[in-house]
Amino acid sequence: MTDLKYIRNFSIIAHIDHGKSTLADRLIQLCGGLTEREMAEQVLDSMDLERERGITIKAQSVTLHYQARDGQTYQLNIIDTPGHVDFSYEVSRSLAACEGALLIVDASQGVEAQSVANCYTAIEQGLEVIPVLNKIDLPAAEPERVIREIEEIIGLDAQEALRVSAKTGEGIEELLEEIIRLIPPPQGERDAPLQALIIDSWFDNYLGVVSLVRVVQGTLKPRQKIRIMSIGRDYQVDHVGVFNPKRLNTDSLKAGEVGFVISGIKEVDGAPVGDTITLADNPAKEPLPGFQPIQPQVFAGLFPVAGDDYENLREALAKLKLNDAALFYEPETSQALGFGFRCGFLGMLHMEIIQERLEREYDIDLITTAPTVVFEVLHTNGETLRIDNPADLPEPNYIDEIREPIITANILVPQEYVGNVINLCIEKRGVQKQMQYLGNQVALTYELPMNEIVLDFFDRLKSVSRGYASLDYEFNRFQAANMVKLDILINGEKVDALSVIVHRDLAQSRGRLLAERMKEIIPRQMFEVAIQAAVGSKILARTNVKALRKNVTAKCYGGDITRKRKLLEKQKAGKRRMKQVGKVEIPQEAFLAVLNVGKDK
Amino acid sequence: MTALGASPAPIFFLPGYHCNPCCYNLAAMFQFSCLPPLSLYIHFPWCVRKCPYCDFNSHEIRQERKQEGAYIESLIADLETELPRTWGRTVVSIFMGGGTPSLFSPESIDRLLSALRARLPLSAETEITLEANPGTVEQARFAEYRDAGVNRLSIGIQSFHDAQLQALGRIHTRREAILAAEAAHLAGFENFNLDLMFALAGQALKEALDDVQTAIALEPAHLSYYQLTIESNTLFHHHPPALPDEDIAWQMQESAQTLFHTAGYRQYEVSAYARPGKECVHNLNYWRFGDYLGIGAGAHDKITDAHTQTIHRNWKVKHPDDYLATAGTSRVIAGSRTLSPQDAVLEFMMNALRLTHGFDHRLFSEHTGLPLHFAEKGLQQAEQLGWLKQDQNTICPTARGRRFLDDLISLFLPDT
């Protein structure tokens, strides 16, 4: 049994690509968590999607045992954190389970905006933050400059920052010693009534709900009857244990420890993240402070391509929602697309991830409509409406005012690209608030309409800065703006799922680009297809897709007829994947065309 | 025959009704009052060079001639084992295709045809076609092929433009193409076909029509005019050439159709044009869902079995070496399939709807062995869409149906 004073709980804060996962792997390896052979690269990113994209989406934990130079064996619990702005709420959840955090900074690239924001969260939550310079083995490493950046941008004393290379293993042992020296051990009373904070929950098809918890007070054991405090439901604990990083059952989880609990919960909403677990027969008086509920910022419609997938989609969303508190969904009906769900996301990456997980893990073909932000609309009857769907925007004569969300964006960019980034911000209707030269980097603060951010701001920011600019943002306020609904008409019929809300000044150019893009995406059909972009009754742009001339297999003789048949079946299946709107067949990507209109400029 | 054979078929056998083929007795469904006409296809799997657009079973010839004799003997052995399936049925046509059959000497073709005559009932009118390359060597043999019994040639011209021929990987020139047609006339072939392709890489309308006019001037009895299609498993599929857009391709087709018509060639199928009475008997039999034997490497057949009242499709091993090793034994069969009623309906439509003038109701029931109501759902949909006309006796695709033939045929695909 590990005494509290020999436990250390910590997170790793790092920007994408700064080597967080590699470092975690190295720590695991050094503590003997896995043999050389078992080390699949980057073990902590367990979702296929995470490995492919090289990002961490979900919090993960691993428990290690490290024999320190003082002769003691310490239990180290690492709670991994995502590095992308969309998932900052996951970061705060992970941090709530820790007493310390490592700030990993790439010794050649320097500090990035996202790490700054996460680091502030850690400091606010009272964590001990240890700055670490990674990739020190690279010839391009400039530790002195990066130390200065950490001090200037974050305000953390970095003179003593450890210099390591997760890749070569250099400095890793010193790092472990520093973790033990600097991060305080957890507090807690092992005999007190149980309070365990649910950091994360996910649904396993065989085990039901698996929850990652930090035991704050008391002890959690198998066969105990536990109560999920906010919903008041009781369950019997089947297993508790830790990840090492494989799932390993243990006898108990005690105050100060981090691990999983499985208690045969089959309902997907049975163990909400942020809730407190206590014992049914000896409950704690108070639940632990949970996490702030997260407001989704970006909304889009998700529709199954095949109507009979609707129920599957509902079920899949419920399962994803279980460990993704920020995912919001409610039924939506579209004239063009039928039954689906209006979903709220934290940002564009979050939306893409959900979309991909639905398609891959749940095998549902989806049509996603263009993402939009929430607008405040002042109705002429005095009501203030929150509009997250262009189709719900009242007619113009009932609108007194539309207010769009404004964000404050903090951008860090190397000096040579600052001009490009400023131009981009101007194009996106941004207002500069601050500009500061910090070492090689420039810190820009802009107020930008969020509506512009959801379109293609990330991609554009990366491309104008060759990938060097980084961005963090937060909601600031709603502000009156001259917004209009831009409609797309196909063969004279308005397609509700294609409407977008845009600034009036941009309506003309967006309309033209969107109509052009539609023309490229919609395949030729047996008749001509007219595409128009309109605001109200005013047509801003028109174009058309010429009629298909013919669709005939040129040769058919006595050979392999099954091959010809397969081609026909493939054609038919291809059409089934398109959405029939009126008589016109529209491919899935048309509904996201608005995202790409700016790209080829 | 079991009791289920009573006509009309019970309602749950209608096409579109999902039924596992294992759960009913196939023989109970089909009723053939007579057997369809029978053709024979013979495959020659070698070419001098593989063309980048060709997805047929062809192999570049390696050991010059060495296998020619052995292959002819294999074909004969292969036929021998097939004979019991079609005992006593007259063969209306023979088609020697490839590959390049004209790589085989007239002596070999003579040996083959003599062997066939000894084993199959042929009539004097039986159409016997040989596919030929327009090369100089082949032209010199045309008369001897004729003496061997070949009465129709199909010459793979493809284009009369040297640059295009080169791009298509053809080994002949414009000059050889023209001489080949003249040689066919000289050799006494009044019935020969020229194969032409259009919508070739970088081809302009004028160039395509120039090909058409050149072809017409050579006075073939028959013309096959194909739009180049990029098939998978071809070189073009992996390195696609820049083809004209579909509007230009359409113009080529329409203008060519007018030229053919004016010159007295009537279109009778998607890509086939003929002087009256010179339609290809062999291909027509495919398109009318007739029966055919297939011998040679990778050859497919389709045979109606009168005893079991079923339709079968068999195919032979593809690689020439495998074929040479197994011809005459049961191991030469690479696969076989027995058609379900749904298969028969679809495959009939895939063929018969290609015919410009459609087909008789009677042809459907005679050649599929099924009453017409098996196809009713698709026929009704097609008629509603304006893709098909029906009267008392005939079913005919409309001009629009012919233009969107793949969509029309897809109506007969079983719902999945």
What amount of the residues of chain B lies in strands?
15-25%
Strand order of the largest sheet of chain B: 9-10-8-7-6-5-4-1-11
What percentage of residues of chain B falls in helices of 4 or more residues? 25-40%
Q: Which whole number gives the mean pLDDT of chain B?
A: 91
- Give the beta-strand count of chain A: 34
Low-confidence stretches of chain A: none
TL;DR?
The complex is a heterodimer of chains A (601) and B (416). Chain A is α+β, with helices and mostly antiparallel strands.
Topology:
The complex is a heterodimer of chains A (601) and B (416).
Chain A: E1 7-14, H1 20-30, H2 48-53, E2 61-67, E3 73-79, H3 88-95, E4 100-106, H4 113-124, E5 128-134, H5 143-154, E6 162-163, H6 172-182, E7 195-204, E8 208-217, E9 219-220, E10 225-228, E11 233-236, E12 239-243, E13 247-250, E14 253-254, E15 258-262, E16 276-279, E17 298-304, H7 310-322, E18 328-334, E19 338-345, H8 348-361, E20 366-368, E21 372-373, E22 375-379, E23 384-387, E24 399-414, H9 418-427, E25 431-438, E26 441-449, H10 450-464, E27 470-480, E28 483-490, E29 493-494, E30 500-503, H11 504-521, E31 529-535, E32 538-545, H12 561-576, E33 579-581, E34 584-586
Parallel strand pairs in A: 1-3, 1-4, 4-5, 5-6
Antiparallel strand pairs in A: 2-3, 7-8, 7-16, 8-15, 9-14, 10-11, 10-16, 12-13, 12-15, 17-19, 17-20, 17-21, 18-19, 22-23, 22-24, 24-26, 24-27, 25-26, 28-29, 28-30, 28-31, 31-32, 33-34
Chain B: H1 26-29, E1 38-44, E2 46-47, E3 59-60, H2 68-82, E4 91-98, H3 106-119, E5 122-132, H4 136-139, H5 142-148, E6 152-158, H6 162-167, H7 174-186, E7 192-198, H8 205-217, E8 222-227, H9 235-238, H10 246-262, E9 266-269, E10 272-274, H11 281-287, E11 291-295, E12 303-305, E13 310-316, H12 320-326, E14 333-338, H13 341-352, E15 359-360, H14 361-368, H15 376-384, E16 388-390, E17 394-397, H16 399-403, H17 405-410
Parallel strand pairs in B: 1-4, 1-11, 2-3, 4-5, 5-6, 6-7, 7-8
Antiparallel strand pairs in B: 8-10, 9-10, 12-13, 13-14, 15-17, 16-17
